[in-house]
Design brief:
234 residues; 2 strands
């Protein structure tokens, strides 16, 4: 059953696909115009193209901001849990560390959009300047995708990593135990399976903070990219 992070990722990807499709239609019309340009006009037009800004103007920037709001929700949940357990508010350094991670993830998402725009511009220029038919140019443009599996994985990984680090940071140094939660199935990584099956991984025992660090699935990193597991306070 999808959790709140899955729902946030799915919503983001759905909106990004709509934005990308809308911009792609505009770019296909632009490709037809560029195909009829002189060499000088083609060069000048290509230099002026800024597809990242086009994406932002069509709503990509707003969707990234909405996703960052989900980061704030995850942090608020961790703080609420800490208060329930009597843990003092976070130190300034802790807040800065979490904000830094959020900022890095924001920049990463903008970077992926920038890379998409650069690749799309390159494909359009190379095909049109090289004399490819407009049909082949449009087909080549169709192979450049922003709302891809890779973006989905990156968004999911960023949110789950942030969620894990939020809990770790608000409970850092506190006398609490940790358990590793998540599925154990045919696609579970060996390191995650070892932690899940560790005799300490139960509500009655749990891992200490230092033991998590040496478990092979440390806070934030866990099993690696697209990991489905999380460290929770026992």
């Amino acid at each position: 059953m999808p959790d709140d992070i899955d729902k946030a990722v799915n919503s983001f990807m759905t909106q990004v696909k709509k934005i990308e499709d809308g911009l792609r239609n505009d770019l296909e019309r632009l490709a037809y115009r560029m195909n009829d340009m002189t060499e000088t006009e083609l060069l000048l037009t290509t230099k002026r193209l800024n597809f990242l800004q086009e994406l932002v103007d069509k709503g990509y920037g707003s969707q990234v901001n909405n996703l960052m709001d989900e980061y704030d929700v995850l942090l608020a949940d961790a703080v609420k849990e800490a208060k329930r357990r009597g843990v003092v508010p976070m130190k300034t350094e802790t807040v800065e560390a979490i904000q830094t991670l959020k900022d890095l993830n924001t920049e990463s998402l903008l970077g992926k959009a920038r890379a998409w725009g650069d690749e799309m511009k390159n494909v359009m220029f190379v095909n049109i300047y090289g004399g490819a038919s407009i049909r082949d140019t449009i087909e080549a443009m169709g192979q450049v995708n922003l709302a891809s599996h890779q973006l989905n994985v990156a968004v999911n990984t960023g949110l789950r990593q942030f969620s894990d680090f939020s809990r770790y940071n608000v409970f850092k140094g506190e006398d609490v135990k940790w358990i590793y939660v998540g599925p154990n199935d045919s696609v579970t990584r060996p390191e995650c399976e070892r932690t899940l099956l560790d005799k300490r991984n139960n509500l009655n025992k749990g891992f200490s903070e230092s033991e998590v660090g040496s478990s092979g699935t440390p806070f934030g990193i866990r099993g690696g990219y697209n990991c489905r597991h999380s460290w929770m306070v026992a």
